[in-house]
Amino acid sequence: MRSDSTIHSTCILILNIISLPTYLSCLYTQAPYGRYTQKGWGPTLPSWISWLLMESPSVIATLFIYSLGRNAASPQSLALLSVFLLHYLHRTFIYPLRLRNATSVAPFPVSIALMAFSFNLFNAYVQTRWISNYAHFGNWFWWRFAVGVLVFGVGMVINVRSDRVLVGLKVQGKGYQIPVGGFFEFVSCANYFGEITEWFGWAIITFSWAGFGFFVYTCANLVPRARATHQWYLNKFAEDYPKHRKAVIPFLY
Prior knowledge:
Elements: H1 4-17, H2 19-28, E1 44-45, H3 47-55, H4 57-67, H5 75-99, E2 108-109, H6 110-134, H7 141-172, H8 190-206, H9 209-237
Antiparallel strand pairs: 1-2
Helix pairs in contact: 1-6, 1-9, 2-9, 3-5, 3-6, 4-5, 4-6, 5-7, 7-8, 8-9
């Protein structure tokens, strides 16, 4: 029977390898939810329920896996756990509750929610097992943690505020509108930019292949969708859409 360390190392390798095919796939096919909703993907659930269910492993599985780690009581591991859960407690519970009042949001395909659930379960194991059992923190940990948390915190503020803007537009029930304010003045997908920034901060904090793999996978998943969304805005709003905005990275892309 393969040891847990071998299994975990294999999962980290898989996480880093799947980023390229994910990126190539997302360049040509957008997950069918939100503005890309289409028939043929099976039964659906209300969007807020889908978000709650598919993000839940990142809280529930994380807490369970963490409790089994040999370093679970160390202050470094607890600090890392707190950062990881900070994002996912918001994404699993607060964000779906905000979506609940947005009646104009299209239903979410169960098949896509199950795929996301599976990835979040897999990633919860990769990240949590590393921080609670296999991490070697070293003398520079708290300096790296301070820098990474600053980056992560900036990203989360951008992400949460941008989501609030988008949900606010959906609650109005007037269909898709041009989002304004905050980092939407620079990019079409400020929420994605915020999330990418968060996990870049996570990669700095962990300084590991586990953290790096998650950051790269996040980019592979969100950058192509941001590119498609930016083009969608340009096509839909034509002359009314701000021409200086980039897709997801301010001033660059």
